[in-house]
Amino acid sequence: MLITDITAKTDRYNLHSHTQFCDGHAPMEAMARAAADRGMLHYGFSPHSPICVESGANMSRENVKPYLDEVDRLKSSSIELPQLYTGMEIDFVSVDFGPHIDYFQRLPLDYRIGSVHFVPNQDGIPVDCDGSSERFIRYLKEVFADDLRYVVEKYFEQVLTMLERGGFDMLGHLDKIAQNASVADPEIERQPWYESLIDDVVSHAKTANVVVEINTKYINEKGRFFPHEQWWQKLKEAKLPIAVNSDAHWPEKVEEGRAQAFEKLDASGFGFPLKQ
Ligand SMILES: [Zn+2]
Ligand SMILES: [Zn+2]
After folding, report:
1. CA of 26 relative to ligand 2 center, distance in Å
2. From CA 210, how far away is CA 159, in angstroms rounded?
3. What separation in Å is there between the alpha carbon of 174 and the centre of ligand 2?
4. What is the DSSP letter of 38?
5. DSSP-derived 3-state class of residue 212
6. Which residues make beta-bridge pairs with 248?
7. Residue 161, SS3?
8. How far is the CA of 84 from the centre of ligand 1 (A)?
9. N or C of the chain: less Cβ packing under 10 Å?
10. Which of 71, 21, 74, 26 is nearest to 50 (CA)?
């Protein structure tokens, strides 16, 4: 598999990054040049996919062709760049819309990341639970009837269904909901029911045969990896292949948090290269 071929050989890669076609803050060429400047050998673009709901962060279907063309242009350019890959971070919204649907399966991508950002509320309306914690707390009260456990369980249900449907290579930030849920309840990750949801994700990821991402985007800003470090031992015990990605939206962030993650992985006995 492309991703494990890379992660088995080197730590000089980043396979989760955003572009001008979604909510990235620099042209793809600037991101790739920044990666080259930092000695990266492999760099994958993964814009937020087109989506079936209103979302300012996602790319439009009309922009998919220009995106693919731009990666092709950079792949064949004479500029000294890392090996480039055409990825996409595909939102799972429901069984009718996710990485598994024909539309995404037919796109000529090098790999697909499956991620959940939207959680259906009690009326089935998908709500963006990513964003700022202030906004999340407001949504929690206004559209989720102040039921935090519902939101968290529903988020993980989405992740599990996405894994069951498949159609992607790498599971993006598997516990991203914890970023906001832990603001609403700092004890939430200590609850046995929460831990059993993580166990379910780990076993589903194993069955789905996907790479699990260690997302390092917020380790400096918010003090946590996704998944949280407390769950890494479960990944190790399950012998899940992992990849360490910065989820960069800015050129200066292409390496954000990756060195810290590799240090901790090493200290946790994962060893290097990551061969699981
Ligand atoms: Zn994401
Ligand atoms: Zn992302």
Report:
1. 14
2. 13
3. 12
4. T
5. strand
6. 17
7. helix
8. 20
9. N
10. 21
**Which residue segments constitute the domains of the chain, with CATH numbers given?**
2-267 (3.20.20.140)
Phi then psi for 206, rounded to 5 degrees?
A: -65, -50
Whole-number pLDDT of residue 273:
59
Kindly give the distance from the C-alpha atom of residue 110 to the centroid of ligand 1, in angstroms, as a whole number.
18
- What residues in the chain have per-residue pLDDT under 50? 275-276
Q: Is 248 helix (H, G, I), strand (E, B) or coil?
A: strand
What pLDDT does residue 272 have?
62
Neighbours of ion ligand 1 (CB under 5 A): 115
For residue 155, the CA-to-ligand 2 centroid distance in Å is 17
Asked if 254 contacts 38 with a C-beta cutoff of 8 angstroms, the reply is yes
Locus of tokens 């200590």: 190
Residues 6+ apart with CB under 8 A from 118: 51, 53, 55, 91, 93, 126, 127, 128, 129, 158
pTM of the predicted model, to two decimals?
0.97
- 250's tokens: 């800015």
With 0-12 CB in 10 A as exposed, 13-18 as middle and 19+ as buried, what is 242?
A: buried
Residue 193 burial by Cβ neighbours in a 10 Å radius (0-12, 13-18, 19+): exposed
Number of Cβ within a 10 Å radius of residue 132: 11
For residue 141, the SS3 value is: helix
Ligand nearest to the CA of 19: 2
Q: Round to whole Å and give the CA distance between 250 and 266.
A: 27
